[in-house]
Design a protein that fits this description.
Elements lengths: L6 H12 L7 E5 L9 E4 L2 E8 L2 H9 L7 E6 L6 H4 L7 E2 L3 H9 L3 E2 L1 H4 L2 H9 L13 E2 L1 H13 L6 H9 L4 H5 L2 H14 L3 H9 L6 H13 L4 H13 L7 H17 L2 H17 L13 H19 L5 H12 L11 H13 L8 H22 L6 H33 L9 E2 L3 H12 L2 E6 L4 H12 L3 E6 L8 E2 L6 H10 L7 H7 L4 H7 L6 E4 L12 H8 L4 E6 L1 H6 L15 H13 L2 E5 L5 E2 L4 E2 L10 E3 L9 E5 L9 E5 L4 E2 L6 E2 L5 H4 E2 L1 E6 L8 E3 L6 H4 L38 H12 L1 H8 L8 H13 L3 E3 H8 L3 H15 L7 E3 L5 E4 L1 H8 L5
Parallel strand pairs: 1-4, 1-5, 3-4, 6-7, 8-11, 9-13, 9-14, 12-13, 16-20
Antiparallel strand pairs: 2-3, 10-23, 10-24, 11-22, 14-23, 15-21, 17-19, 18-19, 25-27, 26-27
Protein name: BREX-2 system phosphatase PglZ
Pfam family, one: PglZ_1st
Amino acid sequence: MSGTVTPERLWPQLEAWLAGDPSRPIFAVYHEGDWSGSDVLMVGDRYVDVRVCRSELAVREVLSAPREAGRGLVLLTSIDQLGADVLARLARPRVHRLHSSDALLPLFGVRAIDPALARQRWLIDALVDSAPRAGYESAGALQLDLARAWRALLVHRYGIDPDGGLGGLLAWAASPGTAFVEAEAAERKALTARLVGTMPGAEAVLAVLDAGDGDDVVALGLVMRVLLNAPDGAARVAARTRLEVRLKGWAFDAGSAAAWSLAAEATLDALPSHLQATVQHRADRLIEILQAESLVAASDHLTSGLRARMAAFGGTLAAWTAGKRSIAAVAADADRIAQHRLADSLPDAPHRLALALARWLDLDAASPPDLRAAALLHATDGSYADWARSTLRNGAGEPTFDAAVRKLVAKADARRESEEEHFAQTLASWSAHSTTDDALLGVEHILERVVGPLAVARPLLFIVMDGMGHRVANELLDDLSHAGWTELRRTAHSERALAVSVLPSVTAVSRTSLLTGSLRRGTMSDEQAAFPTHTALVSASAGGEPPRLFHKGAITDRHGGLTAELSAEVAGDRRVVGAVINAIDDHLARSEQLRTSWGARDILPLWWLLEAAREAGRIVVLASDHGHVLEHGSTLNRGSGDGGERWQRATGRSLETGEVVVQGTRVLVPEGACVLAWSEKVRYAVKKNGYHGGASAQEVLTPLLVLAPGLVDTPDGWSEAPYDPPAWWLGDPASDVVAPGTGVPDAPPAEPRPGEQMTLAPDGPPADVSATGWITELLASDVFAERRASAGRTPVPDERTIRILAALDAHGGQLLKDALARACGIPVMRLTGMLAALRQMLNIDGYQTLTVDPATGDVKLDRVLLAQQFGLSGP
């Protein structure tokens, strides 16, 4: 081995020989065999010729040839004894025998080699053969140790990053290069031993390479998680055995498999989405090859794992619907889906909606005593059930899940049908006198009692979403509460604003009544004429420019965005600007097969208007003239043929199933009475995506949202509203069991125990009394006082700190942010800032006593760690 000369071994020696600048830069090197290098080498700034001389005569011939002064020459010869006259012409009068260790010293810039390295001749040879032209990185050490030598070999010979961990090894294994593939068995064995000894999990990865499956090393790592976490049993044993055979006898090792799985999952997460899909697809195929389909639910990363969890959820949900499983079992399966990393990619989170709808069905149905109570029940409860059941009809593409959801939705449909019948009967009784007040507004009162007074305090944008019911408003509010908008409510009426349409609930009477401020039938022209002259709006304008209303073509520019005129008005000084958006009403006339969501960005004119209002600092009042019902297998009832989609004239016909008669001053038909459909199963017109004009709560009740751009000083008489969906919607079935609007009084607040304090504001929920003791101790601690003092100019008030900590503690230390906002009675946007400030106060030296997961929205409190950090008496 030592007699073999390669350019890599010759270069460092030549650099050392030429460093002395000999006057005769000619060297003889013992050489047998062929020379694979070039005839000319560049060493430093010198050219060095290389000549192979098979005999002494050949040596003499080369030496006798003319040469450029100072040009180097290397004679490669198998003659180890040259004549004295020849030796006299050499820079060093001898034939050199090159040794790898000699070449290694200058390559690393060291003077000696660690004995442990010296004993591994193959490693030295490999380092010399693999050396970069400029040598290895200098470390300043005088001796080359084994660890540094291995590191250099891994990087430069094999392309392995020693600092990349097992994840780096996975990336390398997918394309290991020819050095590994062509290495002799002894070298591969040594390399394997080194990697296994320094990198847990490397043995499994190298086994994949030996089996020729390097392209699948990440996919197999994902499969490994299944074989680790799946329940023990014959199926798992068989799948592991098949894997061992595939990897040519690699013995399954849990520790190595776990490390491999973690690295594979991290590698997958770092890949672009299209490459992730490719790897997941391959992993799913490997699951089939290993016949491990029954185990795949154990994976948090595989698409097949998500499908398996969806199927399991569907089975549990079907059993619950049949009365054979508990709601807790349904919740557990929904949580398993939520834990999968692909769960967020499921459109509309159907597992969460299905669980919420099941929780709603698990509660006792309510029978509100009057229209106001029925309206409040729909706004705060039934409309959320409508959101869930309408969205769940879209399915999720997993047969077992979809079959179970269809049964769930059918059950929810039946309950909502019963509720709508009760609402319609209540509406019929109420319509005879039609008593309205600040707690139950008519749409005709909104300008006078809401828009006008608010416009006195702040410039205002009034947006009418034609056809928007509470179901759509809930979806919009959920989106807007996370997009920097704060809902405001009248301080005297902290519950959701309730408004009722004119009857029948159609645009011609309800929208005209809304925009004119009086009960009347009309057209867009009537609305345009009346809006600028409305007494309350003119008064709010205080002598400035009169209110202005924009309809349809005046709202959006044909090239995109708002018209220049509308944009200028929103940005200008006009106190009241109004706009009518027909997106929802227009949608009802389209195909029922179109999937529609109602986030703010899904309704472009609305989103553009909101952004313009935010920029201008305007308060936004978002209202509607009526709602609608969606087409879900209705039946055409031709009735008298005199009426609309969901209403008929009352003369000359008897009531049928799903109908009710209403009469009174708010019934704007010539006879003052008409027949309204309350059942979703009834329509009087051609089939469309949806209808309006009937007596259901979905059509008659109109949402009214007051939105402020960000956290602002609220106008007098108005307060920030908490984010308050029903408890069952947010996943907290333990609270608010009594449905709102039923007239059942709240339980009196518990008296504080001796030594405990109750400092909550009257508008917020009481903290859990059992938790108040440790919270009191925390607030009184010196450490907390120091942290609070250093928290900046806006520390969280003690009252809010108590609310947040007590709510978390009452729920086992963990809540979704939306659920926490509801439990605390704090708007989501304000809660976000408070949690950031609280984390600054409570998290000391990097210890995370309070955490917020930005991906899932989970807020977690570690009371044990909190007690340790603040020196409290105990958790």
